[in-house]
Structures are given as C-alpha cells and as structure tokens.
Amino acid sequence: MSVLTTTSTPAARPPRRRGGFARAVSGALSTTRGKVGLGLTIIIALLAFGGPFIPGVPSPTAFAGAPFTPPSPTTGLLGTDVLGRSVLSRVLNGGWQLLILAVLATVLGVTVGALAGVVAAYRQGAVEGAIMRIVDVVLAVPQLVLILLFVSIIGPRLWLVVLTVALVQAPQVTRVIYASAQDICERDFVKAVAVWGVPPRTVIRRQVLPSLVTTLAVEVGLRLSVSIVLISGLNFLGFGVQPPNPSWGVMVNENRLGLAANAWGVVAPAAILGILAIGTNIFADALARANLGENRAEEAIVTAALGGPVEQ
To answer: What pTM did the predictor assign?
Structure first.
C-alpha cells in the first residue's frame, strides 16, 4: 500500500501596496514638469555635495590671483573674488552646508507644524483654540524680522538658524494641515476607530496622517524652497555660515562691490540658488497637479503658500 503524501504550497503573498507618499512622487514623476523639477534639484544637490571632491579644484580659501580678476587660465573658469580666491572653488564648496541646513529646517518645521495642525483638528476645544491662537500670533510677525530677532540676541549659531527658520515656517504648515485635517477627522473611519477605544495618538498616526500625504508632500516642496531663500538671506546678512567658509549667500554679499570687474562672483552663486529654488517649486507644483488634478493644482499651491487649506 502506497502512502500518498501531500505538500502544502504556501499561499502567495499579496503584493504590498505602495505608501501614499510613494504614489504621490510616482504620479509627479510621470509628468514632464515633475521630471524637470526633480532633475534641476538633483543637479544642484550633486554639485553641492560632490563639488568638494572634484580632483584638481584648489582650496576655497587659497590665494589664486588679484582680487576680481576675470576668468583666465591662471585664475580658473570663473576668475577670483574680493580676496583673490577662486570663485569656481568657492562655488563648488559653498552649497553643502546650505542644503543640509535647509533640509533640517524643512523637516523640523513640517513635522512640528503637521503635528500641531492634526492635534488641533482632532482634539478641538481648548487645545484647538490654544494652538491656533499661538499660530495667529507668530504669523502676525514677518518671518525675517522674527529670525533676526533671535539670531541677533543669541548669536549666529548654525543650530539657531535651523531652529528659527523651522519655527517661523511651522505656523504656516499648521494652518494648512489643520484646515485639511478637519474634514478627515470627521470621516466615519476615523470616528469608528476612536469609538473602539484606540488612543488618540494612534488614531492620528495611523488614520489621519496617512490621509494627508499629498498635502504634506506639497508643503515639503514649498517649505524647502522657502528655507533655502531664508538661510541664503541670513548668510548674505552675515548670520549663519561665517567667512572665510564658502557659502553661496556669503559669496553674493562679498562680491557685490566688484560686480563690474568680475560678475561671476555674484552671478554664479545667485544663478545656482535661483535654479535650486525653481527646481523645488516646479516639483512641488508637479506633486499638486498629479495628485490634486490640473484644475485644482494652481489653487492648491497658492493657498498652501499663503497658509490656507489644500483640499484632498
């Protein structure tokens, strides 16, 4: 008598669904606008982080020729700056700190603002009133004035620059997320989970925040470009990265007096900052267009920039 043995074949696992953020990015990259925006951003990021490692580039603080010398075989492709240093070398070495500070400020600002907005929308009552009144007070003061107030009192420390830039942007993120989360918090699936006795922090983390991925993605793109502009402006005013360390914002301030003799000391860093800001804004716009629709994308970008609600 033969014994029949059967082997059980494990059931095939269902394919994992991509997260909301991955779907948002994929939708943006399926458009020409998204590809161009991300491409410009990546090019500048590679220039900033890879520039210091390019072989043959002299030290950004080394003497290369007479001040404000135009481009030549001895002074390099972009000539020299106010102290006779290579403009090309300082451009290649002057972006990595700026990008790191801008990314840190963006992540911190969006995180704080998103959490405050979701908590205000979910808890309501006194908590909602307290959070939104603090937001109104902070928004009443111009961003740059508030940043300069803290930086001038405590000093031009890099951690303070990141903290202040993040905190002045967090209220705008709070208003956007608060307006968008109000509708989500009233939906049946959120209320049903809350009725089951799930802690509020779990409801917020697992049910509310995943429904705000598109809004958060657009906010990250907008706040990153604003962080770049604010930190560059602080460097221009003498706060943040201090000379002789190279920085694109510092270079514009240092070389503006020699614009007629060698314009590259100002044009090169200013053009890079402009391309970076344009790239991040285009990609944020592509996220909105791909996930909110062509008819609502422009309105979403404008309302998010002004601190209004972005409809899902």
So the answer is: 0.81
pLDDT, one tens digit per residue, over 20-57 is: 667 778 888 888 888 999 999 999 999 999 999 998 88
| CATH C-level class of 22-51+79-305 | mainly alpha
What CA–CA distances, in Å, run from 243 to 33, 34, 94, 152? 37, 36, 11, 17
As a whole number of angstroms, the distance between CA 159 and CA 179 comes to 30
So where are the chain's domains?
Answer: 22-51+79-305
Contact 280, 305 (CB under 8 A): no
Other CB atoms within 10 A of residue 99 CB: 21
The pair of structure tokens assigned to 5 is 């043995």
Summarised one tens digit per residue, pLDDT across range 210-254 is 888 888 888 888 899 899 999 998 888 888 888 888 899 999 999
Residues 6+ apart with CB under 8 A from 166: 104, 105, 106, 108, 109, 112, 227
